Amino acid sequence: MAGEGGVTPTKYIGQTVPVHVELQMTEVVLAQPEMRAFLAAAKRIAVGECMCRRDRGAEACERPLEVCLAIDGEASRNLETQGWRPISLEDALGVLEASHRAGLVHMAYRKPGLPPEIVCSCCACCCEPLRELRGRDYHDGYVESAYIARFDPASCVGCGHCAERCVFGAFTLPAGTDRATFDESKCFGCGLCASTCPSGAIDLIQRQV
Fold first, then answer.
1. Is 189 helix (H, G, I), strand (E, B) or coil?
2. Contact at 8 Å (CB) between 144 and 19?
3. Which residues have C-beta within 8 Å of that of residue 93, sequence separation ≥ 6?
């Protein structure tokens, strides 16, 4: 997590605990409905560049840079020390929509015992936390979104958009088939699949705990 959105690594503590137990957790995957509520409750919002993509350079990833958001106390700190800029709720929602369209996953960071104050919009090619989450089974070490994808195979038209956008490999389109497959155990509820499914075969529902 070094350098994520201007976050000082020593401020955050990680500990493996069961899913949804809010104890020393550091990362939370947020879906669009959660992100909107998160931003709407903020008194102050700031936006800054993703340091992971910036440091790797445009040749590594062409996705947008200025997509990391901070609220309230963390927003004030990043405005003073990291050169971030203040934005309105409307503009923050615009950043949210643009990053979602670009296929970025919203990862919230928080200190132990406190609500999230930073949301980074992460790609799997540059951002280390998402790369680790994608590459290993970390369901017991991360709090997932409160949502999960629901898939109706009968409505699937086999376009493959879900398989292309799902960075966790929950959706696949096997060669020679005309219908996607869904592995619920790999879904972190980010919503990238549901928002672009042309046939409405995928939506987000509340995760049962």
1. coil
2. yes
3. 36, 39
Contacts of 175 (CB under 8 A, 6+ apart): none
> Which is nearest to 100 in space by CA: 204, 195, 197?
195
The tokens for 25 are 């957790």
Q: Which two tokens stand for residue 106?
A: 């919203």
Residue type, 185: S
CB 47 within 8 A of CB 117: no
Can you tell me the distance from the alpha carbon of 4 to that of 100, in angstroms, rounded to the nearest whole number? 18
pTM: 0.78
Choose among 158, 195, 181: nearest CA to 31: 195
**pLDDT at residue 149 is higher than 60:** yes
Domains of the chain: 4-135 (no CATH), 147-206 (3.30.70.20)
Residues 102, 83: Cα–Cα separation, whole Å: 24
Write out pLDDT tens, residues 170-206. 999 999 999 999 999 889 888 999 999 999 999 999 8
pLDDT of 168 higher than 60: yes
Residue 72, pLDDT > 50, answer yes
- H helices within the chain, ranges in order? 32-40, 51-56, 72-81, 89-101, 128-135, 161-165
Give the closest residue to 52 by CA, choosing from 109, 119, 117, 5: 5
pLDDT score of 31: 76
